[in-house]
Amino acid sequence: MLKVESYIEEKAKVVHSELKRYMENLQGVPQPLKESMTYSLLAGGKRLRPILVLASAEAVGGKEENALPFACAVEMIHTYSLIHDDLPAMDDDDFRRGNPTNHKVYGEAMAILAGDALLTKAFGIMTEGLKEVNLPYEIGLDLLRECSIRVGAEGMVGGQVKDILAEGQGVSLETLQDIHRSKTGDLITFSIRLGAVVGGAKESELHSLTGYAERLGLAFQIQDDILDVIGDQNKIGKPVGSDEGKNKSTYPALLGLEASKEWVQTLVKEAKDLVVSLDEVQSDRLLMIADYLTVRDK
Amino acid sequence: MLKVESYIEEKAKVVHSELKRYMENLQGVPQPLKESMTYSLLAGGKRLRPILVLASAEAVGGKEENALPFACAVEMIHTYSLIHDDLPAMDDDDFRRGNPTNHKVYGEAMAILAGDALLTKAFGIMTEGLKEVNLPYEIGLDLLRECSIRVGAEGMVGGQVKDILAEGQGVSLETLQDIHRSKTGDLITFSIRLGAVVGGAKESELHSLTGYAERLGLAFQIQDDILDVIGDQNKIGKPVGSDEGKNKSTYPALLGLEASKEWVQTLVKEAKDLVVSLDEVQSDRLLMIADYLTVRDK
Question: What EC number(s) has UniProt assigned to this enzyme (chains A, B) (predicted)?
Fold first, then answer.
């Protein structure tokens, strides 16, 4: 197994157990709601976002235990967004990561409420996490405010709306990038910035890590589109070509497959250069993760 | 016009303009999402929760301008919960306050996302508000954490699930109270506690105001059930008897109409007594609001 894969597997396990603990510790929650939340949260997946939180915190010298609540919070936000995106009124997906989607198992009402509850819990966990780290008041509050912007109407939720509005329409490369910058990029960028701030990053480090994050987020999305064309259905957990079937604009469709692959390489190189330039940052894991994104097959 | 009604009308206007300002200031949000959020947020309603935030803050000597962001945040949370509750998968309501519900105007996908965005924005606004008030870090964070608990799986969202599970079943008075404590009570209690803490309440004051809030929340719910039996459809904005039609358990159905009315009176008296007992609290408005709840007809 590659070094990066064992790192990701190890950290995914840490995140998984902690997410499980949060679910088990919920007090006075009706059983079907708890089950519905837990079902999607513990369904697996790459755990990319929480791992980015941990890797980013450690890169600037922070402790994993301090970053862990924030890692779990972003995974809850990611999971809530997937549950709501899969709903019949939205993407109407029956499967996610090879398993029936939340509403197929628990019904639409419970799926909507499980999403609501995961989003709400994420903010609670971040406030708990902030009490444990030694950050100035303003900086802690700014993190929560940034979260609200990056995952709300001005970020992720707005991106989902843009995506819905663009469906069935030929969009320009610029529009496609704008959709992804908010729909998937904002949470990825936030994950890395969150880890960095909690880990005690300096302003200049935060700036470079943000650049790394933005390139990584875009590369990740392009690679997702590429895998939808050339991937292995068993590995990606959904039928290959499903974007095309839905008449969705993708990078391979707009740019061609080769140019898309090249762009991923360029973005990853730029991302890595930004991190390498930081003297006091332990860049190994962030470099590994950036490389991993170009070779992953799921 | 009664003194309390003009107070409520005046404060509702203050809250309305501020909510409008928040919506206008949203940056880079797709127009349909912005419209959908604004539609429900500015649809009117009693504005009970934000007014409780303001009244509670002022009662303990706080400034209205400091409490206003928090008042707007709880109204956004309340509005998000109404949008999601009205969805076809949940209560499937076509009208709210006499107007078509959000999903009837903007479609289900947009309604789900507008709710998500309002909830997310609420947390952002509270963090901004906390930067303006002079509170110890821990207390500020504890408020956000309490919000997450009271409106999430352990509170309001859990209450909605309990309500769904109880539908069509005869429930005991104890179960009914438990449903309402989380479904509607938790946000009302949080509104009053939020205003009190932001306004600078002492521990003993906060304790009594919490007792006031819990009684008010219950009285409010019982009165809602009473109005569903005896109210004026034009004033309450939905058909009279709609709870019975849905086979929902209500206080009048379990206790009888007269006993329900008496219970409201008892709860309001207890709530008022708790506030009156506080020496340094300007109780006038809180007493007025408690009385208003028993005489309101919508």
Answer: 2.5.1.10
**Which residue in A141, A175, A182 has the most chain B C-beta atoms within 10 A of its own C-beta, making it the best mutation to test that interface?**
A141
Q: Which burial class, exposed, middle or buried, applies to A64 when counting CB atoms under 10 A from its CB (0-12, 13-18, 19+)?
A: middle
- Alpha carbon dihedral A126, A127, A129, A134, in 10-degree steps, equals 130
Report the half-sphere exposure of A239 (CA within 13 A, side-chain side). Answer: 9
Write the pLDDT tens digit of every residue in B119-130.
999 999 999 999
pLDDT confidence tier of residue A231, bands split at 50, 70 and 90: confident
Please report, as a single letter, which amino acid is at residue A58: E
pLDDT tier at A248, thresholds 50, 70, 90 = confident
Q: Do B165 and A28 touch (CB under 8 A)?
A: no
Torsion of CA A120, A126, A131, A132, to 10 degrees: 140
List C-alpha distances in Å: A49 to A164, A180, A186, A288: 23, 15, 11, 15
Query: Taking 70 as the threshold, does the pLDDT of residue A86 lie above it?
Result: yes
Residue A244's nearest CA partner among A236, A252, A233, A232 is A252
- CA distance linking residue B66 with residue A90, whole number of Å: 38
Percentage, residues of chain A above pLDDT 90: 82
Mean residue pLDDT across chain B: 92
Candidates B113, B128, B198, partner chain A, best to mutate (most A CBs within 10 A)? B113
Tokens representing residue A109 in the block: 């009402």
Nearest CA in chain B to A86: B109
**Which residue, chain included where needed, has tokens 């809850």?**
A76
B48-69: average pLDDT: 96
A48-60 residue pLDDT tens: 999 999 999 999 9
Nearest to B154 among A29, A89, A112 (CB): A29
Give B236's DSSP letter.
H
Nearest to B119 among A28, A116, A182 (CB): A116
Chain B nearest C-alpha distance from A6 (Å): 34
Residue of A nearest to B135 (CA): A137
Kindly report which listed range (A242-256, B210-224, B264-278) carries the lowest average pLDDT score.
Answer: A242-256
Burial class of residue B288 in the structure, from the number of CB atoms within 10 Å of its CB (0-12 exposed, 13-18 middle, 19+ buried): middle
Task: Kindly determine whether residue A116 and residue B152, on different chains, have CB atoms separated by under 8 Å.
Answer: yes
pLDDT of residue B133: 93
Euclidean distance between CA atoms A193 and A201, whole angstroms:
9
- All residues at 6 or more sequence positions from B269 whose CB lies less than 8 Å from its CB, including other chains: none
Q: Domains in chain B, start-ordered, CATH in brackets?
A: 3-295 (1.10.600.10)
Helix, strand, coil fractions of chain B, as percent rounded to 5: 75, 0, 25
Supply the ipTM of this predicted assembly.
0.95
Of A120, A141, A162, the CB nearest to B157: A120
Give the one of B33, B145, B152 whose C-beta lies nearest to A153's C-beta.
Answer: B33
Q: Among all residues of chain A, which has the CA nearest to that of B29?
A: A154
- What's the gap in Å between the CA of A205 and the closest CA on chain B? 25
Partners of B120 on chain A (C-beta within 8 Å) are: 119, 148, 151-153, 157
